[in-house]
Design a protein that fits this description.
The structure is a single chain. The chain is α+β, with helices and mostly antiparallel strands. The chain is built from 5 helices and 7 strands, in the order αααββββββααβ. Strands 1, 2, 5 and 6 form a 4-stranded antiparallel β-sheet that branches. A hairpin with a 4-residue loop joins β3 and β4.
Length: 217
């Protein structure tokens, strides 16, 4: 009889130990996968931290040169040598006229260089409203189609003149590019669009940081 009681007692002890062990595992698992409420609140509080001016400035400057507007256009390049006779050096005489008309395809990327921003361009209040003054738009990059389709080029070479060659065509391209980049009318037409695109890009980033962005001039 005593032997049977001892066996039942041992079995009860084993069951209690097993139950206690499972309870400990459950508590540990709960701590790992379901953090305590105060830990979750601390995490949320950390996420709601309002960035300071230096952090906001770092966000903008980290993007460096932001190109938000791209324009592709075609301009006609015109070259006309006219007729000139050098009176000093006869070896430079050029008899006859050379002319060339050719299309030039240019792609220009406009945007804003964020490296020019300073902390003075950022105003931050306690309500999380941030007022931002962006630098002025500018040309970020441009490219020219290096290929020349001879079927689209019109040339004319007068008496004793060579045909218009690649060097002259490159000179025409360079001139057209310089004129387009210096075209203030084109730039002023696009300025509002450049600023609007840039604001939209950074507005979404600032909203994710819990800020209320307002762009000023």
């Amino acid at each position: 009889m005593s032997i049977q009681l001892n066996t039942e007692l041992k079995q009860t002890i084993r069951n209690c130990a097993l139950a206690l062990g499972l309870g400990v595992v459950a508590v540990v698992a709960a701590q790992l996968f379901f953090p305590a409420k105060d830990i979750a609140e601390q995490f949320l509080a950390a996420q709601q931290h309002t960035p300071d001016k230096q952090e906001i400035l770092g966000l903008f400057q980290s993007k460096s040169q932001v190109a938000t507007t791209e324009v592709s256009l075609r301009r006609m390049g015109i070259y006309d040598s006219e007729t000139r006779l050098a009176t000093i050096n006869p070896t430079q005489w050029r008899l006859g006229r050379r002319a060339c008309i050719m299309p030039v395809d240019i792609t220009i990327k406009y945007g804003i260089d964020m490296r020019r921003m300073t902390e003075s361009d950022i105003l931050l209040d306690t309500a999380g409203v941030v007022r931002i003054r962006l630098p002025r738009p500018e040309v970020i990059d441009y490219s020219v189609d290096l290929r020349t389709d001879r079927r689209e080029v019109v040339t004319m070479s007068g008496w004793l003149r060579d045909d218009v060659g690649e060097q002259t065509m490159q000179t025409i391209k360079n001139k057209v590019v310089a004129e387009v980049l210096a075209d203030s009318t084109l730039f002023s037409t696009l300025s509002s669009e450049i600023e609007s695109n840039t604001r939209s890009l950074f507005r979404s980033m600032l909203l994710q940081m819990g800020l209320k962005p307002q762009f000023i001039r």
